[in-house]
């Protein structure tokens, strides 16, 4: 078992006051809260900080922890001395936090597995017929799947209790219909495909969080889809009807005359389908042909003569 | 499973949009008393469709917001109004991230 340096985790000195510890906790909790933080290991850090605070906020637990001595280093192999907590009377003992099941072995070895409250809650869950827990998984789809719907076969791993009550890792395959109109970050709910119920309780639901595979052509923002479309200078200047790809196949697109680079043309309702479907935005990117032969060079020169164009006029130069 | 076995095709709903919950459904899904849901409605964390609480319908996304509010209150010690503000800002942040992601590269 690894030693955990709760002071280091909280970023406070060993002689920090209770107020300093509280302030440090509030700050770290906000920083690593899984609902708030975008950092990849936020959840792990949040739990660590919660565990450290559980010990350091409580003067009894903190004093007992301090008795272990300051010479331990984080990660060092650790066994508590057999009589380490002698002479301490804990009130409640164990965890007081709401999400105590996540605490480390290190914590449990030192402070036990929870007071009467924790024990009761766990027992109560066993005695009733309870609905199984909802489970979560991710499903990676293509943008085209959101337009047309699709079928995906997923292999999910989960832990199941054997008849003897031992947890076992199981694998199962599911054939899932991806509904048309689903968007990034939304969840597909599959009724009763979550954890089995306890007793006569129903199974929980399985939620599949949808993630789009990056698309080589299209970018997605909510229900709207964006396409960068290269156009020739004469197409933008004179107007033209050109072919543009869309997730449902190519369309003819009319470019208005005198379009400038960056102009967005909206194809209403051609975004991700829904009752109120999204739009497809075509963003014009003017592509310049190279002046790599005499005729092209002459054409550019004639162009300059004809337009007397200063693209920096608005900069005053 | 033996090879060649046909897997049953499961169809689900898009939870955030296609699923509607009654007040009782929402309480059950989030394991909360109705009073607490009233409080969250009052603060605008979730918006019911309809006027009469007995006939309220909630969009699936309400479940996500309620759970998030619960966690923020429990873990960070904010009150309901603070959680409501945080959720609004977090959703705005998510939209902006999506836009940034689109505009990058």
Features:
heterodimer, A: 317 residues, alpha+beta, Helix Hairpins, HSP40/DNAj peptide-binding domain, 3 domains, four-stranded mixed β-sheet, three-stranded mixed β-sheet, 9 helices, 11 strands, B: 105 residues, mainly alpha, Multidrug-efflux Transporter Regulator, Chain: A, Domain 2, two-stranded antiparallel sheet, 4 strands
Write a concise synopsis of the structure shown.
Chain A is α+β, with helices and mostly antiparallel strands. Helices cover 28% and strands 24% of the residues of chain A. Chain A has a 4-stranded mixed β-sheet. In chain A, strands 1-5-4 form a 3-stranded mixed β-sheet. In chain A, strands 2-3 form a two-stranded antiparallel ribbon.
Question: Rg of chain B from C-alpha positions?
Answer: 18 Å
Fraction of residues in H or I helices of chain A: 25-40%
| Strand content bin of chain A | 15-25%
Largest sheet of chain A: 4 strands, mixed
Distance between the termini of chain B: 44 Å
CATH class bucket of chain B? Mainly Alpha
Find the CATH topology of chain B.
Multidrug-efflux Transporter Regulator, Chain: A, Domain 2
Output the structural class of chain B: mainly alpha
What fraction of residues of chain B sit in β-strands? 5-15%
The CATH superfamily name of the largest domain in chain A is DnaJ domain
Tell me the structural class of chain A. Answer: alpha+beta
- CATH topological fold name of the largest domain in chain A: Helix Hairpins
| Number of continuous helical runs of chain B | 5
| Number of separate domains of chain A | 3
Query: How many beta strands in the DSSP annotation of chain A?
Result: 11
Order of helices and strands of chain B: EEHEHHEHH
């Amino acid at each position: 078992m690894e030693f955990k340096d709760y002071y280091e985790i909280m970023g406070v000195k060993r002689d920090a006051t209770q107020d300093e510890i509280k302030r440090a906790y509030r700050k770290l909790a906000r920083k690593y809260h899984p609902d708030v933080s975008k950092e990849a290991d936020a959840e792990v850090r949040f739990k660590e900080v919660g565990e450290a605070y559980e010990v350091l906020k409580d003067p009894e637990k903190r004093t007992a922890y301090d008795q272990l001595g300051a010479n331990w280093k984080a990660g060092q192999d650790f066994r508590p001395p057999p009589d380490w907590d002698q002479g301490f009377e804990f009130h409640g003992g164990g965890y007081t936090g709401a999400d105590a099941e996540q605490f480390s072995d290190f914590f449990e070895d030192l402070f036990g597995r929870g007071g009467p409250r924790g024990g009761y809650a766990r027992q109560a869950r066993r005695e009733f017929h309870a609905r199984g827990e909802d489970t979560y998984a991710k499903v990676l789809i293509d943008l085209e799947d959101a337009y047309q719907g699709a079928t995906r076969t997923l292999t999910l791993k989960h832990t199941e209790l054997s008849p003897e009550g031992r947890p076992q890792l199981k694998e199962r395959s599911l054939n899932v219909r991806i509904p048309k109109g689903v968007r990034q970050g939304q969840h597909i709910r599959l009724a009763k495909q979550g954890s089995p119920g306890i007793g006569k309780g129903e199974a929980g639901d399985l939620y599949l969080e949808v993630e789009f595979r990056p698309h080589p052509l299209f970018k997605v923002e909510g229900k709207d889809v964006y396409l960068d479309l290269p156009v020739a200078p004469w197409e933008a200047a004179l107007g033209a009807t050109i072919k543009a790809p869309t997730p449902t196949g190519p369309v003819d697109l009319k470019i208005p005359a005198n379009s400038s680079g960056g102009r967005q043309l909206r194809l209403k309702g051609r975004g991700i389908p829904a009752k109120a479907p999204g739009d497809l935005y075509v963003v014009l990117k003017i592509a310049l042909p190279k002046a790599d032969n005499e005729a092209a060079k002459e054409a550019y020169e004639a162009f300059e003569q004809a337009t007397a164009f200063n693209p920096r006029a608005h900069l005053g130069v | 499973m033996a090879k060649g076995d046909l897997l049953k095709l499961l169809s689900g709903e898009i939870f955030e949009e296609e699923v509607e919950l009654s007040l009782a459904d929402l309480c059950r899904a989030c394991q909360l008393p109705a009073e607490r849901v009233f409080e969250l409605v009052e603060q605008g964390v979730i918006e019911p469709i309809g006027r009469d609480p007995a006939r309220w319908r909630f969009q699936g996304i309400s479940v996500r917001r309620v759970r998030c509010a619960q966690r923020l209150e429990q873990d960070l010690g904010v009150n309901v109004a603070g959680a409501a503000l945080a959720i609004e800002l977090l959703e705005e942040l998510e939209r902006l991230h999506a836009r940034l992601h689109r505009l990058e590269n």
